[in-house]
């Protein structure tokens, strides 16, 4: 059995990117764009179209092969009797989150963890004796770059997310998103969602697709905001998951998040996430080209007996977003080998951010 | 952290019941009843009503407090502006399967495992050297009653469900249900689903509830038949879950069911299952009074900030179904203490089985 890599291998990669990419990349030229109407009812796979009939359902996408292929795929999928028809119950679409639905420089959940460490240290000053906590308080993120960095990050994760009830954790996540701003773009994180992808989610739902988040981030971190950010209800969020500690005693339930990891929803773990939560092969799968994390889910979607669509976002826009590449180029190589659609943020998107 | 009890503690209890109850209980007098139209589209939380307006949506339920309370709860939940209104996104209903949606004497999944053991032993006669396999082949189920019974049952589970691809396992499940008949009722298992409960599922969906199976049985065992038996799609099935072994190599995915248990979806584990798969507190929860397995989920649903409904099926009909009780009466005691609705199969149901 494959041993899932630790969440903090992902975390460490993310942190390295956070530390590195914000130095390399320029801030976007314009972050004050039109609001994204991300409020469609996604509890239904057959949500009625919200767009005006005949109107362009993907106005933030530049005309070109990628846009045309998306429109043609969806048209064929919904044309009964046609060769590309996909029955409604098989119209399952999975979307990675970080770098696919919103900007991932920096990783938002890592910002949340760092902030929670600081809050906890205020409540319990003795925590600052821990070198990892001290490093966060001193804003010395270089501390996490050495060989023990992962171990220290794991300690922080356990410190900030376990022993809380799911309801308390949800409240903490909501409080974070109510206040926090993207450090470079200086806007609330909701405004750093990608407008073209929010349009794509709505367009798919309007055509009977059930849209799912398939994030490497924590399931309990994404759920509280998935509906308002993307129109995706909590039960259609898949993410890295910890076990839950549930006790029933004298008729009362005590529920807490436990430290034990149940699923790292990244790389092959994303396929395990789909198997656990959906039990169907998605016919539409979207990811991005960082850390090879989406190759497995896109490969899996291509095993569907129905026509399928694979989309990989390429972060090639240093002006409006952040330009970065994988060292080994594995994701783009897999896209080329399998005829997946590579979406260029620079060339394919008229606007990048959902904005206010 | 609570250590989930082994699936085969449940299994052993089930087996004991299987061995015991079929001796005590009489076969139902009449199993050739009207068909259940269990084909509603449950991928949507807002499925249109299938019943004629004004018609009784629960014709297999005898008029009485339980039926009236169900009708009143749903009417209030859907009356906007009223004190019992529940917004559509919160209308989540969870149903245990064994003993709540279909007859559990014997446990159907145990029949499947025993049959698969026999098949495997045909393919590999050397397996019969294993005393547990030999006991199955000799129909010596007393073998599993001793103190090592659980250990032997675990071995059989590992033997019959691991190392297979999910697709192959699904095919095996479908093949089983295509052929197998209930040993006492002598009908296909689909006909042993409870007609009143299938009506209830349809009625809830017609009123904007999203219906979920929350079974102690295996998620991969329930999913292939949940849609045709109950109108519930695979992604709304929660069950006991094993880990999946996923490997991506040279662009190819190899996927197998692994022997490691991820969730025992029974007792407190049912709450963990809801947290993992739904992330919302159900407002309607249904279980039955065997082995105290549903007390936790019903307790949890009562913590909803919205009005909620708890239903516990009582197996008190030795004529038409099977009459059995918990030794300690824990489920009925919890129902009394918490004002849950106890449904008497004898008194509340006009008909019991969905039939052909």
TrEMBL record, chains A, B:
<keyword id="KW-0732">Signal</keyword>
<dbReference type="Pfam" id="PF12710">
    <property type="entry name" value="HAD"/>
</dbReference>
<feature type="region of interest" description="Disordered">
    <location>
        <begin position="30"/>
        <end position="63"/>
    </location>
</feature>
<dbReference type="InterPro" id="IPR023214">
    <property type="entry name" value="HAD_sf"/>
</dbReference>
<dbReference type="InterPro" id="IPR036412">
    <property type="entry name" value="HAD-like_sf"/>
</dbReference>
<protein>
    <submittedName>
        <fullName>Haloacid dehalogenase-like hydrolase</fullName>
    </submittedName>
</protein>
<keyword id="KW-0378">Hydrolase</keyword>
<dbReference type="GO" id="GO:0016787">
    <property type="term" value="F:hydrolase activity"/>
</dbReference>
<feature type="compositionally biased region" description="Low complexity">
    <location>
        <begin position="30"/>
        <end position="57"/>
    </location>
</feature>
<feature type="signal peptide">
    <location>
        <begin position="1"/>
        <end position="27"/>
    </location>
</feature>
